[in-house]
Design goal:
The structure holds two protein chains of two kinds. Chain A is α/β, with parallel strands linked by helices. Chain A has helices spanning 12-21, 48-57, 61-69, 79-84, 178-187; strands spanning 2-6, 25-29, 40-43, 74-77, 85-88, 99-104, 115-119, 129-133, 138-142, 147-152, 155-161, 164-167. Chain B has one domain: TIM Barrel (Alpha-Beta Barrel). In chain B, helix 6 (94-103) links the parallel strand 4 and strand 5. Classes of the chains: A alpha/beta, B alpha/beta. Chain B: Its EC number is 4.3.3.6.
C-alpha cells in the first residue's frame, strides 16, 4: 500500500518518515499523474496559501476532490486542515473545501504563541497525545456530517468527516504514531 | 474548561522554533520593503516574507551602517499578509532582536546583510522565544550557530549580487562536509569537531541524521527559477530570494516562477516553461569586482 503525501511545500518529509515508521511507503505528490495508485493522501503543514495556489497552478484540486468523493481517505495537518475546510474565515484562498467546518487561520496568534500541550483524544485511547501547534488554526464550527474528535480550550483541533481527517497540530513532529495509525485504519 | 490545560501549554520550545522552519520547507521566502510588495509576494505563493527597509542590493549601493528596519515598516508588512513575517537584526545586536521579538515577528534573521554590531559574539539565541535563522558558509559555522540556538540555517552566498556562485560554493561545502562526517568512524569525530570548530554533540547528530539537525535554506544571489532549482538540487530545503524579485522588471511573474521552480526543482520541462518571458533579471555583480572588506559573507565567523 502506498500513501501519497502532497509535496508542493511544507513538512512532507516528516509525514513520509512517520509512515515509514509504521512500515508504509509514502510517495511525494507534486503532479496529477502521481496520484495514480495511492490508497490515501496526506496534506502536510506548510503555508496553506502557498500550497493552495500551487494546487491550482498544477491542476491538483479537482483530481483530489474526485478521489475523495470516491472514498479515498485524506488527512490534513495544520495547513492541510485549512485546505480541507469548506469555510476559511476572512479568506477567499484556493482550497479543497470538503469538510463541513469553518476554520480560523493562525488562531492562537503569531509564532511566539506557538505551543506544545498534552491533549485528550478519546479515539486514540486514554493516554494523552503530545500535540505541537505551530501558528495553528482551530475549527470555529463543526457541522454534521463532520464531527469533533478533540478540543483544546473549547475549540475543535481534530475532526473527522467519513473518509476525511484533520488535525490543527503536527503529529508528524513527534514520535507518537497513533494519529497516523488511526488514519491508516480508515483506509482498510 | 481548559484552564489547567492552558497552564500546561509550553511556548517558545525548541520543537516549535525548529518546527516553523520545517513548515517553510520547499518554499520561497522573499525580501519585501512595503506592504504592497508583501501582498505581491503572498499572492505569488511565498511561504514567508522578510520585512526590510532596503533590499541587499540597495544596502550595498547605499553603503554606511545598515541597521534593523524601522518597526513601523515591519508592523505594516505584518498587517498586510497572513504568511509568516521575518525581520533582520545585526549580528550580535541582541537588543534589536529583543525589539523584533516584542513586535511579534515570526522569525529573526541574525544577518550579515546588516552591519555587524559585534565582531566577536553572535546573539545567544536560546534566550528568545522567537526562532532565529543564521547564515553559514560551511558545516562548522552552521553548527556554531545552531549551538547558539539558531533553529534554521541558510547559506550566506553573497547578498545583493544576483550572482549565485557563492551560494553554490557554501551549499556544496556544507553538503560535502556532511558526507565526510557520515563516513568518519566515531573515534575520529572529536578531532573533526575540533578541526571545524563545531560543538561535538552536534557533529554526532549530523553523523546520525546525515543532514543538519535543522532546516537548511539557500540564500544570497538567487535571481532566476533556474538558480532556485539548482540550489534545491544541491540539497537546499528551500529558498530565500532577496533583491532578485523586486529588482527585476516583472516581480509578480518572476516570483511565481521561482515558487513553481522550487516545488518542481527536478522537472526540467516545468522549469523551462516557467522560465519563459520573465523580462529582465536584476543586474548582476561579478564577485571579483567586490572588494574583500565589502563582501557581506565575511561578516560573522
Amino acid at each position: 500500500m502506498k500513501i501519497g503525501v502532497l509535496a508542493m511545500q511544507g513538512a512532507f518529509r516528516e509525514h513520509i518518515a512517520s509512515l515509514a515508521a509504521l512500515g508504509v511507503e509514502g510517495v511525494e505528490i507534486r503532479r496529477e499523474r502521481q496520484l495514480e495508485g495511492i490508497a490515501g493522501l496526506i496534506i502536510p503543514g506548510g503555508e496553506s496559501t502557498t500550497i493552495g495556489k500551487l494546487m491550482v497552478e498544477f491542476n491538483l484540486l479537482e483530481p483530489i476532490r474526485e478521489l475523495a468523493a470516491a472514498g479515498m481517505p485524506v488527512f490534513g495537518t495544520c495547513a492541510g486542515m485549512v485546505l480541507l475546510a469548506r469555510d476559511i474565515i476572512g479568506s477567499d484562498q484556493p482550497r479543497l473545501g470538503l469538510m463541513h467546518v469553518s476554520v480560523q487561520r493562525n488562531a492562537y496568534g503569531r509564532q511566539v504563541d506557538s505551543f506544545e500541550v498534552d491533549l485528550e483524544i478519546p479515539v486514540l485511547g486514554e493516554e494523552p497525545f503530545h500535540a505541537v501547534f505551530i501558528r495553528a488554526p482551530y475549527l470555529e464550527r463543526v457541522e454534521p456530517p463532520a464531527e469533533s474528535l478533540a478540543t483544546f480550550m473549547g475549540k475543535t483541533v481534530m475532526a473527522r468527516q467519513g473518509n476525511l481527517l484533520a488535525t490543527a497540530f503536527h503529529p508528524e513532529l513527534t514520535k507518537d504514531l497513533r494519529v497516523h495509525r488511526y488514519f491508516l485504519e480508515m483506509i482498510k | 474548561m481548559g484552564g489547567t490545560k492552558m497552564a500546561a501549554a509550553e511556548k517558545g520550545t525548541w520543537t516549535v522554533k525548529k518546527g516553523l522552519a520545517e513548515m517553510l520547507k520547499g518554499g520561497v521566502i522573499m525580501d519585501v520593503t512595503t506592504p504592497e510588495q508583501a501582498k505581491i509576494a503572498e499572492e505569488a505563493g511565498a511561504c514567508a516574507v522578510m520585512a526590510l527597509e532596503r533590499v541587499p542590493a540597495d544596502i550595498r549601493a547605499a553603503g554606511g551602517v545598515a541597521r534593523m528596519a524601522d518597526p513601523t515598516v515591519i508592523l505594516r508588512i505584518m498587517d498586510a499578509v497572513t504568511i509568516p513575517v521575518m525581520a533582520k537584526a545585526r549580528i550580535g545586536h541582541f537588543v534589536e532582536a529583543q525589539i523584533l521579538e516584542a513586535l511579534g515577528v515570526d522569525y529573526i534573521d541574525e544577518s550579515e546583510v546588516l552591519t555587524p554590531a559585534d565582531e566577536e559574539f553572535h546573539i545567544n539565541k536560546h534566550e528568545f522565544k522567537v526562532p532565529f535563522v543564521c547564515g553559514a558558509r560551511n558545516l562548522g559555522e552552521a553548527l556554531r550557530r545552531i549551538g547558539e540556538g539558531a533553529a534554521m540555517i541558510r547559506t550566506k552566498g553573497e547578498p545583493g549580487t544576483g550572482n549565485v556562485v557563492e551560494a553554490v560554493r557554501h551549499m556544496r561545502r556544507v553538503m560535502s562536509e556532511i558526507r565526510r562526517v557520515q563516513n568518519l568512524p566515531d573515534e575520529e569525530l572529536m578531532t573533526f569537531a575540533k578541526e571545524i570548530q563545531a560543538p561535538y554533540e552536534l557533529v554526532k547528530q549530523v553523523k546520525e541524521l546525515g543532514r543538519l539537525p535543522v532546516v537548511n535554506f539557500a540564500a544570497g544571489g538567487i535571481a532566476t527559477p533556474a538558480d532556485a532549482a539548482l540550489m534545491m538540487q544541491l540539497g537546499a530545503d528551500g529558498i530565500f530570494v532577496g533583491s532578485g524579485i523586486f529588482k527585476s522588471s516583472d516581480p509578480m511573474k518572476r516570483a511565481r516562477a521561482i515558487v513553481a521552480a522550487t516545488t518542481h526543482f527536478r522537472e526540467p520541462e516545468i522549469l523551462a516553461e516557467v522560465s519563459k518571458d520573465l523580462g529582465e533579471a536584476m543586474p548582476g555583480l561579478e564577485i571579483a569586482t567586490i572588494r574583500q572588506e565589502e563582501r557581506m559573507q565575511e561578516r560573522g565567523w
